[in-house]
């Protein structure tokens, strides 16, 4: 089970970086906004779990269409939009 | 194609006694128990349970990304498979033999993950299950991950038949090689159900041993008049099986030969064993091996330490072997390593391989007061030299009335 709780609110990209390094074993140097999940070695199931963690952390929900992002930067930007729409 | 001989050429072990088979056998031979009291949390309180756990650290060679999808039994199986491949010289640049088959036994699959995920789902407030929950729990996890980790593309088979799971996995792999379907197999079992939920079920079944007056380590007492039940263990054992032609062409050391396999069902009761069904499994295995009962020198018994089970197996051995029963050495190594359920037969097969290699028979530890109803030579307390030992048999019997027996033969100098 993941137990990541950051001390202060951070943007979703920072959360993704911490999640992928700590829980998915991805090398921090590879975590640039242009990186694709597949390029980082994440298969579809790992990518789905990454999105779930992002959703649970910020109380948001990606639509089926939104899940089809191509880079981490895109995923983070979508998450930021959803967070903003929530009024956080 | 005529039937082909099948040899064991590698053994990988993740067991309560360690991960080196030679050392594990020496400790079992010395009667050293791995049973101890382990604090288990349940319903807000803690109780000590008698268990035979594995000191298992998450393996640094399992990538974190794929390790996220592995239950504990699967991680143990992936490690045991690597040890087996390394010891048979079949691991090249991290990959195993591409066309091999994988035959694994597993009783309760990812029960640790099942519990963790349900705790999350049933929490207040509830949390969603992980996306990977379902494929992490399946009993075929160990076999599937061995295939993926080592690039092995032959049949990937899982046998989930309670306590005979790994005996049947090894037996079916033996048959597949003997009859030419595959040349090489990884065969064995994995089990890791020493978690709160699974243990709670076992506790209610009234088959677990209570602590013996002389200490926790003496609580697994097969064939003893003071036996009170079984001790649960965990682990994974994987054997490399190869056809004779392939093994000899590689020049690899042959550790032992599998010569016979017999399976039967009691068609009787969910938890009570039947001497008739067990006798049939042993007879079928001997017929399959074309070996007379008189040739068998050692039986590694299933005997778990329950009142009924040990007595019924002793009867079945007497019926199968007749007067030869008096000359037969029978021991239950569960007296020191406990009952590994889906990995039990694989561990006991591995120990029987070492028995044949070394000519040394491990004792039934803690057998200070033999039960007259288990009237066999159960090799009490002290291991024994048996230099002329050529054939041995290992028994496995399961809830649901499934019985499986394997016959092994020492590799004689050519």
Summarize the structure.
The complex is a heterodimer of chains A (88) and B (414). Chain A is an all-alpha fold and 88 residues long.
Which key features would you list for this structure?
heterodimer, A: 88 residues, mainly alpha, 3 helices, 0% strand, globular, B: 414 residues, alpha/beta, Peroxisomal Thiolase, Chain A, domain 1, 2 domains, ten-stranded mixed β-sheet, 13 helices, 21% strand
One letter per element, helices H and strands E, the order of chain B comes to: EHEEHHEHHHEHEHEEHEHEHEHHEEEE
Q: What is the 3D shape of chain A?
A: globular
Give the helix tally of chain A.
Answer: 3
The largest inter-chain interface, given as chain pair and residues per side, is: A-B, 13 and 14 residues
CATH architecture of the largest domain in chain B: 3-Layer(aba) Sandwich
CATH class of the largest domain in chain B: Alpha Beta
Helix/strand structural class of chain A: mainly alpha
Total E-strand runs of chain A: 0
Largest sheet of chain A: none
* Helix content class of chain B: 25-40%
Identify low-pLDDT runs of chain A.
Answer: 1-9
The number of distinct structural domains of chain A comes to: 1
Q: What is the general shape of chain B?
A: globular
Across the major sheet of chain B, the strand order is: 5-4-6-8-1-9-15-14-10-11
> How large is the radius of gyration of chain B?
20 Å
Radius of gyration of chain A: 12 Å
CATH homologous superfamily designation of the largest domain in chain B: Thiolase/Chalcone synthase
Order of helices and strands of chain A: HHH
What does this protein look like?
The complex is a heterodimer of chains A (88) and B (414). Chain A has 88 residues and is an all-alpha fold. Chain A has one domain. Chain A has 3 helices and no strands. Chain A has helices at 12-22, 44-58, 72-86. The longest helix of chain A is centred in the middle third of the chain and has 15 residues, at 44-58. The radius of gyration of chain A is 12 Å and the shape is globular. Residues 1-9 of chain A have low confidence and may be disordered. Chain B has 414 residues and is of the alpha/beta class. Chain B has 2 domains: 6-250, Thiolase/Chalcone synthase (Peroxisomal Thiolase, Chain A, domain 1), CATH 3.40.47; 260-409, Peroxisomal Thiolase, Chain A, domain 1. In chain B, 32% of the residues lie in helices and 21% in strands. Chain B is built from 13 helices and 15 strands. Chain B has helices at residues 21-29, 64-67, 72-87, 111-121, 133-137, 141-150, 165-178, 196-204, 244-250, 275-289, 307-321, 334-337, 344-358, and strands spanning 6-14, 36-42, 45-52, 101-105, 156-159, 184-191, 232-233, 235-243, 256-265, 296-300, 329-331, 360-361, 384-385, 391-397, 402-409. A 10-stranded mixed beta sheet of chain B has the order 5-4-6-8-1-9-15-14-10-11, with helices on both faces. In chain B, strands 2-3-7 form a 3-stranded mixed beta sheet, with helices on one face. Chain B has a two-stranded antiparallel ribbon with strand order 12-13. In chain B, helix 10 (275-289) crosses helix 11 (307-321). Chain B starts with 5 loop residues before the first strand and ends in a 5-residue tail after the last strand. Classes of the chains: A mainly alpha (88), B alpha/beta (414).
